[in-house]
Each structure stands twice: as structure tokens, then as C-alpha cells.
Amino acid sequence: MSSTVNPTIADSLKEYGRGIAGGLLFSLPLLYTQEMWDTGIIFTPERLALALGFITTLLLGYNRFSGLHKDASWIEVLIDSVEELGLGLLLAALLLWMIGAIHGDLSVLDIVGRTIVEGLMIAVGVSIGTAQLGIEEDASSDLQARDEALPGMLEQLTLGICGAFIVAMNVAPTEEIALIAAQVSPWHLLAIAIVALLLTAMVLFFSDFMRSQPYHQARSALLFVRTITMVYAEALCVAFALLWFFQRFAGQQAYAIISQTLVLSLPAALGAAAGRLLIRGTCHTKMGLSGASLRLVCCCRLLPLATWCTQGSRRAMFPRAGRSSLARRASSTSCTLSPGQSLTKAVALPKMSRCWLICAPTAVTRALTSISTGSRAPTPGRRSQLYPGSYHR
């Protein structure tokens, strides 16, 4: 995972450390989610192989356009992508064993399935963490010019899909997407689509995010319409693909499929728009941390962590996210941005010794004031009603 020539052992260890931190930062909530565990058991080897191929392609695209230096060869890109994928799978296996999600009572296929499903998301975080949480000692004029120019079409598509995947993946496995889609009216779905388009336009054209200058300077109506349409199309495609991957369309009518896709398109659109700006290139900062990664984490998603307090607890869920506090605005001369305060809250439930740890880092610019999301794990009864045949104890 090195983008430098002949790195020392210390440099390599630092890169692996950044990769591990990034992998856990982006994927830890999914490691505590029962739906993800069940997915690894339910899925066929063919579907797991398809997911493995998709994530490998995504890693190749990200490393080619953003993760490594511009002059990196495809061989270097391939080597880094394979390393990141291997590290993600290794971390997934270790952490799933630590929390008891894989054990000796499971078959080899079940263990492999759970490890692959969880490890793929960790691998994406490893790739982003390795490239964007580091220190760059020398600012390159080539990279500076790259930040001031509008990226190519393929680069925009790749980074947009990467951002949409990172954000939407946190809620796509949960049952709440189907519940919301079944409860809302067509007018609500129309409002979701309009808000998604407005968020896309706001992030790209009307907010002072780093690397948004090319979009601000290109004020043509054609570029405006084309960009927000393309970003929302990416979000719809990613939302549809994730829901199909998690078998949410089995036995569903066309209206239910469209409704679920539109519901998930809102977080996916925010991630796709942010991905074009916030995970592009290498950022040189005085503090040594990439403002791109900080703002992507803070503006696009909450990182809820569910923890157990008793031996009787058997399921892990997404907690309901608390209200986030305002963060300082980004400086016009630096890439750094202070993340919002973390909110930690313990809730005692009747007849249950279970506590929730809610960690909601949020960054707010002048256009974004607060973000809150959340979901809860379903009971076997609710799951079996919505997805017949998809829930296995």
C-alpha cells in the first residue's frame, strides 16, 4: 500500500496503520449489525464472488484516480488494491471472532461468507484511510493544478460511486428501508428525490467545500443540470445495486422496488456529491490530516457503535443517532476541519441490561447544520414477513 519509491519499514507500518484506522472508521457499525452477519450466511457463493469482483474494481478505480500519485502504473495500482482487500478480509475475520460473530459452531462456508461480506466494506475504508489520512511533506504543483481543474468523466463517475457506496452501505442492509418505502406516499417519494437533487446542487455548487472551485467557476446552466443529473443517476444506480445485492427485491412489485430505491437514494446522493470533492487527490495540510477525509466522515455519515453489556444480549443493532453539535467552519486557507463533538449516551431499557454507545461526529459548513440518521435491528417476525425465506436463524 505504498505510493512512494522504496519505502522504509517504518513508512510501510505507518501506511498499514492508516489503512487499519480508515477501515474501522468507515465500517465498524456494520460489524455490529445482525443483518450483515445473516447476509454472509444466506448469500450463495456466486453472489459473494460478484461482490468480491465489484469491490476489487472499485478499489482499482479509486487507487488509479485518487489513492496513488498520478504517475503510478497499473501494476502498482493492482498490488495496492490486492493488499487493501487482503487487509480488509483479515481485519474482518479478527474482529468478527473478537465479538463472537464467528465461532466453532459455524460451518466453514458460513465463516467465509461473513468474513467476505464484512471485509469488503473494510477494504474500501482501508484504501481511503491509507491515501488520505497521511502527511505529505512536499506540496506538488501537479496535484495543486489537479485540484483546480475539473476532473475527467471517468474519474467523476468512479469517485462518485465510491462516495455513494460508502454512505448508502451503512443503511442498505437494514430493514428500515423497506419499512419506510411501504409507509410513505408517492408525494413523500417525490420530496425525497427533490431534496436529494437540492443536496447535490448545494454540495457541489453552493458550499465552500475544498476542491469545489471548479464547479463554482463553471457557472453554465448546462453543466449545472448535467452534473446534478449525473450524480443523482449514480446514486440511484448504487441504491438499486445495494438493495438487489441484499435481496430486498425478492417477491416485490415494481412500485415497492422503485420506492425502496428512492428512499436509499437520499444518502447515496449525498455520498456521491461529496465523493467528487472530498476524496479526490492527496490533500496537503499543516496539521497532517486530510481535510477531505475528515469532511467526508463528518458531513456524510454518523458512526454509531452498538456495544453489549450482558451475556444474554444476542443481537447487535444500529442505534438511533442523537443530535449533533455544530462544528467550526472550514478555513479558507487550510484543508483541515474540526469534527463535531461526540455524543455518548447510555440508555437503560426495561427488563433488559443493554446500553447504547452513540458516537456521532458531524462537521457543518455554512450550508449544512446538522445530520442525523439511525436504524434499529428487526425481529425475526418482521424480517420473515417482509422478506420471506431470507431470514435464517
Task: Give the helix/strand layout.
Layout: H1 9-31, H2 34-42, H3 45-67, H4 74-98, H5 108-132, H6 141-148, H7 153-168, H8 176-183, H9 186-205, H10 213-217, H11 221-245, H12 254-278, H13 291-300, E1 305-306, E2 356-357, H14 380-386
Antiparallel strand pairs: 1-2
Helix pairs in contact: 1-4, 1-5, 2-5, 3-4, 3-5, 3-7, 4-5, 7-11, 7-12, 8-12, 9-11, 9-12, 11-12, 12-13
Helix content: 55-70%
What proportion of the residues form beta strands (DSSP E)? under 5%
Mean pLDDT across residues: 69
Coarse shape: globular
Describe the sheet with the most strands: 2 strands, antiparallel
Low-confidence stretches: 137-143, 280-393
- Count of DSSP-assigned helices: 14
From the helix content, strand content and strand pairing, which structural class follows?
Answer: mainly alpha
SSE string: HHHHHHHHHHHHHEEH
Radius of gyration: 20 Å
Biggest β-sheet: strands ordered side by side in the sheet: 1-2
> What's the number of extended β-strand segments?
2
Calculate the terminal CA-CA distance, rounded to whole Å: 39 Å
